[in-house]
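Summary for the steering committee. One of the milestones for this cycle was to obtain a three-dimensional model of the protein with N-(iminomethyl)-L-glutamic acid bound, which we needed before selecting residues for the alanine scan. The sequence and ligand used are listed below.
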Amino acid sequence: MSLSLWRGARLATLTGSSGYGLVDDGALLVQGDRLHWVGPATALPAGLDVTAEHELHGALVTPGLVDCHTHLVYGGHRGHEFERRLNGVSYEQIAREGGGIRSTVGATRAASEDSLYADAEARCRQLMREGVTTVEVKSGYGLSAEHEARCLRVARRLGATLPVTVRSTCLSAHALPPEFAGRSDDYIAAVCAWLPELHAQGLVDAVDAFCEAIAFTPVQTRRVFDAARALGLPVKLHAEQLSDQGGAALGAGYGALSADHLEHLSADGIAAMARAGTVAVLLPGAYYFLRETKLPPVAALRRAGVPIALATDHNPGSSPTLSPLLMLNMACTLFRLTPEEALRGMTVNGARALGLRDRGQLVAGQRADFAIWPQAQGCPIEHPGELSYWLGQQVTPRVVWGGQERDKA
Ligand code: NIG
Ligand code: FE
């Protein structure tokens, strides 16, 4: 099979477990959708059948970005709640009054599947514009068998239509829908009953839940995870966002791919995650937008060797951002991650939070998903640390996804 050669690159390979893995004057050989060879141009193997050559003139090349936690599929928005919160009403209070997630459930149910798709596609394209090549999309605003299936079909359609890899996560245990008011155990039973059907339709890659005082208890979370386990589906969890419910340790007991948010994570939770290899997904957008003050325990996670990932958590209530680069910056300024940790969080560790080991580093055998960062556009990115630097700027890389250059749509 023929090869395409990308040369003249400054590569941030992210190989090994630390460092950028910089290779100046680097080259990438792509075969089909995979990286065939990566290294310094001086070591390029000779005598290969190279059919296309691209000179990058010293541009920085990183793995494509992985946004491992989003809620892209929903109707309406919650700008009015943002204003209420700024007038002193808390996120929890709005949720208890039936607003919050449940107000988005109403708008999502009222929308047609095509309009849900059109909105989700526009959002997904915005993530892609900033270098995202893999994105996770959760359900969780349908909250009935029919409406959860619609949201997951929209996620699958994104993956089938756009040049991006989409992983779909069933988050039916996100909030209690109004028709189950006062009957949360019955709702959990309903979720466990429809999960096999959604899975049989090929709509689910993983199962998530929101374990929180305003959502579901640890016991209810276990029931959902038992149902997932019975189907062989991996689990992940919204855990310790607003209070410590012991969710991260619970998830780790199920070998969870990730526990996400984690502002209120305890030492026991960290130890359990380290033992299980569960990734800590930090979401600085939600921390910022909810004006939280309790920081996730980054130093302790680091000491315990828990892999740290970052994501946009795009959703209409707690994190309406569609900028992965802004999340890199905020992870550094708010959470004190280093720019290197932030980039690993949105590449190799983001992939790991989705159970994907074939992407996130530039090394032979991995998927040929990479971003070529601009040296101009007013915001040049010449070193990988600068990806965290251009606060709030629109930086648009060239992107190769599965070996093919994407249009700048
Ligand atoms: O990840 N925490 C729960 N779920 C979302 C927020 C959903 C919403 O407010 O609509 C999150 O922050
Ligand atoms: Fe979330």
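Key point for the committee: The chain has 14 helices and 16 strands.
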